[in-house]
Amino acid sequence: MQYTIPNILTSFRIILVPVFVVCFYLPFEWAHQAAAWVFMIAAITDWFDGYLARKLDQTSAFGAFLDPVADKVMVAVALILLVDQNPTDYPPIFMTMAAVIIIGREITISALREWMAEVGSRNSVAVSIIGKIKTTAQMTALIWLIYEEPMFGIPLADVGFVLLYISVFLTLWSMVDYISAALPTLKER
């Protein structure tokens, strides 16, 4: 492992996962707000590690491997916790379906990328602008859903829920884009 600033930030994000879970389940009124702050710090490190890796020319194979793992673990854990303690008034099936779609897409696209890399076509399933918008919407939605409490009279959980479903739509859209990009290679193999 190379000890670069981006790799340290990515590793820090993974370390934050158990901290996030513990904060979420603390027996205090402010537990979810603390968990939201931990998740937000993790989301910010996600942006910074990629930016710094490019800016400082510190990209590495280890970072390319670990960064998506850290992202997917953090998002999957957040979704599981939100399914466990639905912060909205919507029926639990809606939170569960969003989690299933998002986690299912991440598994599918990870497997697709791995296979495409194996056959030498990794670049045809590189991260797209839709994927980046999806990630931003998803992280924001999760922060607001985890925070749960209204802020300045704004029902963050409800706004987060709507944003979560926007990210579900973007999740499906980006999955179709990735599969479409990989289809020629999939058909010829």
What does this structure look like?
- The protein is mainly alpha-helical.
- It has a single domain, classed as CDP-alcohol phosphotransferase transmembrane (TM) domain (Four Helix Bundle (Hemerythrin (Met), subunit A), Up-down Bundle).
- Helices cover 79% and strands 0% of the residues.
- It is built from 6 helices and no strands.
- Helix 1 runs antiparallel to helix 2.
- The longest helix is centred in the last third of the chain and has 33 residues.
- The chain is globular and about 55 Å long.
- The mean pLDDT is 89.
**Strand/helix succession:** HHHHHH
Average pLDDT rating:
89
What structural category do the secondary elements indicate?
mainly alpha
Helical content (DSSP H or I, runs of 4+): over 70%
Number of domains: 1
3D shape = globular
Task: Fill in the CATH topology.
Answer: Four Helix Bundle (Hemerythrin (Met), subunit A)
Low-confidence stretches: none
- Which CATH C-level class is it? Mainly Alpha
Instruction: List how many beta strands DSSP finds.
Output: 0
Distance between the termini: 34 Å
Beta-strand portion reads under 5%
CATH H-level superfamily: CDP-alcohol phosphotransferase transmembrane (TM) domain
What's the architecture in CATH terms? Answer: Up-down Bundle
Number of continuous helical runs: 6
Radius of gyration: 17 Å
Query: Mind summarizing the main beta sheet?
Result: none
